[in-house]
Queue: 3 jobs
Job 1
Amino acid sequence: MVEGRPDEETVYAGDPVTVAHRWEVAGAKMLHVVDLDGAFAGRPVHLPLIKEIVAAVEIPVQVGGGIRDRAAVEAVLACGVARVILGTAAAVDSGLLRELVRKFGARVMASVDCRQGVVAVHGWRSLAGLEAVAFGRELKTHGVERVVFTDIARDGTLTGPNIAAVESFARATGLKVIASGGISRLEDIQALRSLEVVGVEAVIIGRALYDGRFSLEEAIAVAEGKEVAGQENYSVP
């Protein structure tokens, strides 16, 4: 999708399990899976498929999308995933968030999805009235250690990540940050890698890989600080 709009959806492959295995073989350290149908439905929709993906790979899998109550968290974790990501629930129910963090610890993450610095919820369709940095600081008081930070205006656009926003958020909150949205070039990964000192520990790459902008192997090399000579065009059938 582009900027979280369901009418801008692009389907790259019909079998997510096969694609998951492909990324593992290419060297992925972790898989980020989003139940998009679940995000719009407000509940996990693809639990059997998530379980299949987890069974097909040996690397850890983190899952988000429609996980908005304790039962949903427990159901997703029961699929064998390493971490669950709470978006709307983290923003609207701090009591539930605290309870889940107490019970599951670092296996519970939060997603900070924002438009112009304001947190979006319910499948990114509405704004919660929370400023992103203030929300991040609140998450930390509830025991959250790690978040996925997404500038929705960059998501799926291949226009580059909002480096300034990522850095500002990481510095101000002290959270471990996984950056998401807009990655289009290896230089974007290099720029985010430079923010490791302020807590940016990983990056989620989607469309750029499927469009063949660069290979996963190249992306990993850059993330590890290695030189990459010359780009080739890679695509995922």
Note: The beta strands are 31-34, 61-64, 83-86, 108-115, 118-121, 126-131, 146-151, 176-180, 200-204.
Job 2
Amino acid sequence: MKQSIAQVTLIVPDYDEAIGWFTQALGFVIVDDVDLGHHKRWVVVAPQGSGGANLVLAEPGDDQQTARVGDQTGGRVFLFLHTDDFWRDHARMKAHGVHFVEVPRKEPYGWVAVFEDNWGNRWDLLEPTGKRS
């Protein structure tokens, strides 16, 4: 049996705002953007060249979901963005206004720094050990 996680849903306040942030600040690409009617869309973005999971961007459907925008994990790091060049991507992201909550640090598992998306969810930018020293 072979399985993999293909997509993860991220609740965002507005489709177009989220598409803009992910494509500009992080350099992601749009995989799908399909109108489902009734003010709903199927919006999927992914890092360029990714072979991993994609992000499904979803506007909240009720007050409970709205309350989760920017805090899907109670303040913990939610998503891990792997890179083959930490310093290239760190510089690009900073130039596009991405807020890093810490300075980069070298850990046994690689170079890492926590950043927040436009809504406050925490991410790791991570270049795993073995990719580059």
Note: Residues 22 and 80 are 14 Å apart (CA to CA).
Job 3
Amino acid sequence: MRVPLSWLRDFAPFDLDPVALGETFDDLGMVVEAIDLIGEGIDDVVVARVLDVRAHPKADRVRITEVDAGSGPLQVVCGAPNVAAGQLVAFAPVGAMLPDDFEIGRRQVRGEWSEGMICSARELDLGADAAGIMVLEGDHEPGSPLAAALGIERDAVYDLAIEGNRPDANCIAGVARDAAARLRIPFAIPEVSLVEGAKPVADLAAISVESPDLCPRFTARVVTGVTVGPSAPLVARRLTLAGMRPISNVVDASNYVMLELGQPTHPYDLDRLPGRGLLVRRARPGEVLVTLDEVERRLGEEDCLICDATGTPVGIGGIMGGASSEISAPTTSVLLEAAYFDPMSIARSSKRLGLRSEASARFERGCDPEGIERAAARFLAILGTGDVAAGILDLWQRPAPAPPIRLRTARVNALLGTELVDGDVRSLLAPIGFRAEPAGDSGVHLVVAPSFRPDATTEIDLVEEVARHHGYSRIPRSVPNSPYVGHLTAYQQRRRHLRDVLVGAGVSEAASSPLLAPGDNERAGYTGELIEASDPLAREESVLRASLLPSLLKAVAHNTSYRSPDVALFEIGKVFRVPAGRRGPLPDERELLGVALAGAGGGAVAAKQVLDVVLDGMGRTEARIEAAAAAGLHPTRTARVFLGFDVIGHVGEVDPDVSGAFGIEGRVGWIELDLAGLVPTAPVYRQAAPVSRHPSSDIDLAFVVDESVPASAVAVSIRQAAGALLGDLRLFDVYRNDRLGDGVRSLAFRLRLQAADRTLTDADVAEVRARCIEAVATAHEAGLRA
């Protein structure tokens, strides 16, 4: 926000050096990003009249002029293309000092003497135009100071960064109040005295509010006999310094009040309002309005509309008016709207419509509902034309008074490290509008926040105000000593360990958006109901993912398109599904691990190998898998992963039709596991076993089992039977043949037996072999293949 120093002085007698005042703003949390000094470096520049212009005999691009700066003709060489006889120009004579300490001297240009310089706006820091000289309007006496001719006064303009939690500082008066309180100088908002006519405002216009939840307070005033024209020079100059372009006296008065007091207002041409009144209501779905920026806006039920008395929209409440009733040159009667809108409604509408204005930026942070009458009166005073109708139309759903905030001096000192007393606290809060009274107990205050501080609702908000006005620089620095030390939970530690395990296995981590394009979930084989985002950032990504499969397949396809088909990717992310039976308002949100293995290292076998690494790394040696079908996966190369009786995910291979739908050729191995089941809830401690120095013995066992018997179940039986002597167990062959019979297959396992304290004898190996054969035969009705 740009804040001119001269404007601040309307509210308090600031006499500090501009830089010193800027340091005060900084210490109050209103960070000064730049200070522009206005009127510096033009004290020596005067008005001059161009008497004659002729060509330079030795140069094509410059001309010789004669100018009168009040003391007779002077020859000046000028290269500007727009110089012409009869013009009034800005002239810097010999010896003048221009901005940036540039001194004008008498110099020779191609043999012709130049007795000064005709200046451009850029050379005087009065504008950005450097293409030609500055030509003055009006009639000015040659030799008179340029600053006086242009009405330029010395000033300083601060560019302040105002944070979102400071709605009171979004205006000149709010900045002045804060700085005056810190500097202990008087602050006051000047009172406005209006001369009203005899005709009541109710005879000229009417207002109605159908949606008080969107607009709790709505007021209107009327002024007739208005003459639309340029604003007073002071108003136009201040608006320009604040970064706004002057338009007309009516529009400028509204902008001036918004910048000065923080209250947006909107003037309407009363004669262009059917029914000569305003109505506030919710927009109907699909309703359309052309706003002042000539853009057609499609509205929804959350938007607040300002309508004429017949219900036709003429503006979006708190954001922007419509084009149908804007102020124009023929306007003679003005209806001024000044209102208080619900901040969250304005914020939602502004974001959804992609329309942010100076008014909406203030309304969504919170304006002062009790300052509306002052703002309307200030508008009429600045307008200075026409007859003001008597009274004000005012519809106000006044809320119940907010309870006082309890503030403890001891709490202030404990948080800030200060030694303030009760009187100090009250004296720091009083100048910025907070009324503090003793609560009866020593060191406790009951504080009532002013209406222009909707952000101050809790004790900590008041502590911050005390800190700001006591001065952060006066608070001694200290290192906080807290008994609470941050740490990762067991779940977070194991999840981080899981990432390390996968990276160690040669799998790279991917990060993708939880939002997918409509149809991505279906292409990946998911057939359940999906959840759509109510307000997506992009229409092409509007559906929440129900699986990690489409996200990682898109990543694989992207790598493949760049000729990198051999990729191994994993992602730990959340998926969103409609709850079973639609219980509860929130989706079923789960955190999953997804692994995609494509190219030369793809396929179900590679996926099973990575799964073994993951389960071993997480200490889940009791896990087992069983063949099963799963959405999006190959019907005969997929298995469910069990922990006990709970299914925690699937491992296998992506269905070729699914991978083909994403433009991927070849096999893609896939793992998807629920982290809630995979990651232990408590730390897992694994005891390292000593490495045996004795030789091992390998035996192979091939069992003929029913097709329904999972290989993992057979492996569990072997492990239990072999006991402590089993060092390693691997399934190395699956065989089917007509000679074996229908519905059966052969599973061949290699057992590595090893003892920690001795070399195994043939009898030891034979005993283990017999136990394993008996265990598998008993548990699974299996026979040993000959």
Note: The first helix runs from residue 5 to 8.
